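Note to self: keep these together.
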Amino acid sequence: MILRTLTYALFAATILFSAPAMADDANTVTIKNFDYSPMALTVSAGTTVTWHNLDGEPHTVVSVDGLFRSAALDSGESFTFTFTKSGTFKYVCSIHPKMVATVTVK
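Structure:
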């Protein structure tokens, strides 16, 4: 009986605490294998986007138009930016300029 109750409680907690995390994943860019993924992201104005560096090398997130600029992100570090105006924003890694991606804000 106690085991069944604990199992149900764990299941309920998993559902309760997993829902917000899944919602956040839609606005997350992963940096891995010297690439941004996804390379093109579309969000609504007012959305906060988070970049997570999962590479063993440092990377940056630098807007070509100067709107945002992260410090060098070591492995496991993150950078967030809230997009308040519409447009298409190209960004690069200033350390590895072949890394290019965009965020489109509607």
